């Protein structure tokens, strides 16, 4: 039954996340919200919703390792696995404007995340700081886009569904995310006990990979269609939201105790892979994530997973 719970949890989270984005975008259209705000806020929060609900539910159910491992594992998978596999299919050209500021924010909040974990707990005030930084990042992103005069993003989007269906989509997505997270956390924690590994291992591998599947599927589809212009910016943005929104909101609701192995091992891999990404996009003016770099990323991800189980 635990494996069924795990599978059903993944399915519910994937479909609910998609429903949340579709319903929220359509609902925003009814209220004449600009495409810019939809792109920066609605879609970003929607794609981070599975991680948020899983981490929040895990913290409330007394599984802090799952709450933390889900975020750290997802951030590692987003760059090393998702970005790596996508680059193997089609080399990714990087626009300086799409990565310079966002990468700086990503590495900064990752280092702040590390500092907050040094006392082996994430407390209310640290969560509040993350939430404040999240709103500042969203504001800065919207302001920056407006300065660049992206007029097409300033126009309001036409809703795809009527108001009732849009609200229904959002409500159904919310219910699906709640129950999907509960099933996933319950199934994963029980499986971890059965096979003799701790919650941390199952969260940074199975759960993190599961919550990263939507990004993986979207990126591969974009690579096949050769539509990767803003792809790397979206990956970095997703990692920023995972730390600021998911860890921020979760630690505001409940203090998260930090496994020492997260601090000694996982955190440094997340930061190291982020630094490697920066090295791989130098020089910024004509940066490309080539196929060989994609193979390196995927190889690093495999090594990380192997060592996580071996240690």
Overview of this protein structure:
With 311 residues, this protein is mainly alpha-helical. The chain has 11 helices and 4 strands, in the order αααβαβαααααβαβα. A two-stranded antiparallel ribbon has the order 1-4. Strands 2-3 form a two-stranded antiparallel sheet. The chain is globular and about 50 Å long. The two termini are 29 Å apart.
Point out poorly predicted stretches: none
* CATH classification, class level: Mainly Alpha
Q: Radius of gyration from the CA trace?
A: 19 Å
| CATH fold category name | A middle domain of Talin 1
The span between the termini is 29 Å
Which word captures the global form?
globular
Structural class, by secondary structure, is: mainly alpha
**Quaternary structure classification:** single chain
Order of strands across the widest beta sheet?
1-4
Number of domains: 1
| CATH architecture assignment | Up-down Bundle
Strand content: under 5%
Mean model confidence by pLDDT: 83
- Within CATH, the superfamily carries the name NCX, central ion-binding region
- Tally of separate helices: 11
Helix content: over 70%
User: Major beta sheet, specifics?
Assistant: 2 strands, antiparallel
Instruction: Report the count of strand segments.
Output: 4
